[in-house]
Give the backbone structure.
Amino acid sequence: DAGVTQSPTHLIKTRGQQVTLRCSPKSGHDTVSWYQQALGQGPQFIFQYYEEEERQRGNFPDRFSGHQFPNYSSELNVNALLLGDSALYLCASSSLGVSYNEQFFGPGTRLTVL
Amino acid sequence: DAKTTQPPSMDCAEGRAANLPCNHSTISGNEYVYWYRQIHSQGPQYIIHGLKNNETNEMASLIITEDRKSSTLILPHATLRDTAVYYCIVRSPNNAGNMLTFGGGTRLMVKP
C-alpha cells in the first residue's frame, strides 16, 4: 500500500501564475481533503472532496479550487498566485463511511511563490 | 469543534516518558479528542483518539480526565525519532466533513 502520494514535491512559481497540485489517496479511501500549512503554523483546512464534489470548504478565497476524479484522486488549483500562498500543501485521505476514522496525510508539496 | 490549548514546547530525555498535556475545557459530550504528530518536513500522522475512557495503542496512551476538560498524551519511552510537533484536536462526530482544526501544537524535543 503506497499510502497517500502527492506531486510534485517542490514547486517554484512567480506571482500571478497558476499552479496545479496532485494527490492520490490511500487505497480504499474515497475522500480527499486539502490543507495549507504556512511556516511555523499548524495546517489550515482548505476543502474536501467526496464523490467528485466539494463537500466542505474552509476560509479560503475562490482562487483556490479543486477537482476529484472517478478514481478518487484529486487536484488543487491556485490561480493568481500571491507571495502569501507560499506554504506546504498537504493532502489527506479518509473513508467517509467509516466513523471516527483517522485521516492519512501525504508528504506534501512545498510551494514557493517569488 | 472545541478549542484546545497546548504548551508551545517541551523537552524530554531519551528513554523517559513524555507527557504532553492538552486543555479542552469547552469540549462537548459527543466530541472526541484526537492526537496527531508532525515530524519535520512530513505530513501529520495519526496517533490516537478517545472519548472518555483511557486509550492505549502501540504508539501511545491517552489519559482523559473524568470531567473531560483536559487530556494527556503519553509516549512511554521517548526516542529521538519522537521529536515532532504534537497536535491535540477536538472533533465532533457531527463534523460531516471530518475536517481537522489544528492549533499551534507542542514542539517536543527528545534529547539524548
